[in-house]
Design goal:
Layout (H helix, E strand, L loop, with lengths): L26 H14 L7 H13 L6 E5 L5 E3 L5 E4 L9 E7 L7 E2 L4 E7 L2 E7 L3 E2 L5 E10 L8 E7 L2 E10 L6 E9 L10 E5 L9 E6 L4 E6 L2 E5 L15 E2 L1 E4 L2 E2 L2 E2 L2 E11 L4 H7 L5
Antiparallel strand pairs: 1-21, 2-3, 3-4, 4-7, 5-6, 6-7, 6-21, 7-18, 8-17, 9-14, 9-21, 10-11, 10-18, 11-12, 12-13, 14-15, 15-16, 19-20
Helix pairs in contact: 1-2
Length: 301
């Protein structure tokens, strides 16, 4: 137990005061260091004020030390001479930077749409480009974790959407998906899903929370309550949908697993699956609760 007493009198003792300034996290200082890293790597920050505000959001709401990936193209990206996005920078360090990957013959460049503030990602059966974190990421530490973000399905006449998430042994174990399919068989501005605790002994049962309405870039968050066996979906600051409870009683425990964050299609044995969408923003917390989900699902409002 610690107690602090302020007498209101100036200290006149012989010991020098302890300088704690280096231990205090400051949004401006964090932004300055981040900007220096981005510029040194040849990148730019299209929205500097928004990026600084995101640092403030993470610090003011106690998320900074629980976040693993916080990245948005408008907050830092690098492109090559042809306009292909090479890197989307992670506000929390280079291990979470999203770097370009490719397979086969890409049908188009992976470009930044400055108007939408999003990166266009397309993978077909012939190939494509996608984003993948530079290093493996911690997914879960506490009894619940969170993924939040904003994406858009760019072609509504196919059966593809866009997915951001973690795949282990070609199984999507924590993901965020946006999809609207031909004939509107699926109309989901967001879906947050995982498997139940029958994994890793087996593949586990699918558990997800989703909206039944489609719109582009809807602010949302998924709270994965591992111990309670449910996924809760939040939209624009409110609880919006809850999954069915896992028949095993718990969700898959990912606290001992690390894997890259992939944005595009799901990982399969043959590569990254087909997708066509736009990625705007993502935030991942390894430990989270309902208050975090409320706040994270308001990002972009």
């Amino acid at each position: 137990m610690t107690a602090a007493i302020n007498t209101g009198k100036a200290y006149a003792g012989f010991r020098a005061a302890i300088d704690l300034s280096a231990s205090i996290l400051d949004p401006q200082a964090l932004f300055n260091a981040y900007k220096a890293r981005v510029v040194a790597d040849g990148g730019t920050i299209p929205d500097e004020s928004g990026c600084l505000a995101r640092f403030s959001f993470l610090l003011n709401n106690g998320m900074y030390d629980r976040a693993t990936v916080c990245a948005a193209p408008a907050f830092g990206l690098k492109v090559d001479g042809s306009g292909n996005v090479q890197t989307i920078y992670n506000l929390l360090g280079d291990a979470g930077d999203l770097i370009a990957g490719s397979q086969g013959t890409p049908p188009r460049a992976m470009t930044y749409d400055a108007t939408a503030r999003a990166v266009i990602i397309q993978v077909t059966s012939g190939g494509g480009r996608f984003l993948k974190s530079r290093a493996n990421q911690v997914i879960q530490k506490g009894g619940a974790y969170l993924i939040a973000g904003r994406m858009s399905d760019l072609y509504r006449a196919d059966n593809n959407g866009i997915t951001a998430g973690y795949n282990i042994n070609n199984l999507a174990l924590a993901y965020f998906r946006t999809m609207i399919t031909n004939n509107q068989g699926t109309t989901e501005a967001w879906r947050y899903g995982t498997r139940d605790s029958a994994w890793p002994a087996g593949t586990g049962g699918a558990i997800y929370a989703a909206t039944s309405v489609y719109a582009d870039y809807v602010p949302s968050a998924g709270l994965f309550k591992v111990e309670q066996g449910i996924v809760e979906g939040y939209e624009k600051g409110k609880s919006s949908a809850t999954s069915e409870a896992a028949v095993t009683g718990k969700l898959a425990d990912l606290s001992s697993s690390t894997t890259p964050l992939l944005i595009g299609g799901a990982q399969t044995e043959s590569g990254v699956a087909a997708c066509y969408g736009a990625f705007m923003d993502i935030l991942c917390l390894h430990t989270a609760d309902e208050s975090d989900a409320v706040l994270a699902s308001r990002l972009g409002m």
